[in-house]
């Protein structure tokens, strides 16, 4: 087992949990008619991100490791914090895009580390999660285009 693989899995686990918290908070605090579609998308993505965290946690367990608890938590998604202005939907969209880019980078690094460690199970999981994050990024890029046109 590679230390790089487990370190990346633990980072990804924490990032997914943080994403759930920020998506939930933003889906609650955003206001306005224009915010409804974004709020619904965030609510839908919460369950998917929770599932990602669970899959990563289970993989860590299989590798005789354990997912980090809250005492080890380090917040990193500064751009995804709820906006001061609850109608500032574009700041949330940009925050989601930043978080998705970070997740994509983490999963690409995990794919490489797992391949080097000859760990095809982790590599397969990372490929699946990468595809999900790329789909989220595409969806929010579309939202951003719509908001920038107005």
From TrEMBL:
Q: Which InterPro entries match?
A: Ferritin-like, Ferritin-like_diiron, Ferritin-like_SF, Ferritin_DPS_dom
Tell me which Pfam families the record gives.
Answer: Ferritin (PF00210)
Residue stretches making up the Ferritin-like diiron domain: 1-150
Q: Report the record's Gene Ontology biological process terms.
A: intracellular iron ion homeostasis
What do the Gene Ontology cellular component annotations say? cytosol
Which key words tag this protein in UniProt? Iron, Iron storage
Q: Name one GO molecular function term.
A: ferroxidase activity
UniProt xrefs under SUPFAM superfamilies = Ferritin-like (SSF47240)
Q: What Gene3D superfamilies does the record tag this protein with?
A: 1.20.1260.10
- Name-wise, this protein is Ferritin-like domain subfamily protein
- Which organism was this protein described from? Haloferax elongans ATCC BAA-1513
């Amino acid at each position: 087992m590679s230390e790089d693989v487990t370190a990346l899995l633990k980072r990804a686990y924490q990032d997914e949990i943080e994403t759930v918290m920020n998506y939930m908070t933003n889906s609650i605090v955003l206001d306005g008619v224009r915010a409804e579609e974004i709020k619904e998308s965030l609510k839908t993505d919460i369950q998917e991100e929770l599932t990602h965290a669970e899959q990563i946690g289970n993989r860590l367990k299989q590798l005789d490791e354990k997912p980090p608890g809250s005492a080890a938590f380090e917040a990193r998604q500064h751009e995804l914090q709820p906006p001061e202005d609850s109608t500032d939907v574009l700041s949330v969209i940009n925050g989601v895009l930043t978080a998705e880019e970070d997740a994509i980078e983490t999963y690409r690094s995990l794919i490489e580390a797992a391949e080097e460690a000859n760990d095809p199970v982790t590599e397969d999981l990372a490929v699946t999660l990468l595809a999900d994050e790329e789909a989220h990024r595409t969806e929010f890029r579309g939202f951003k285009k719509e908001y920038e046109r107005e």
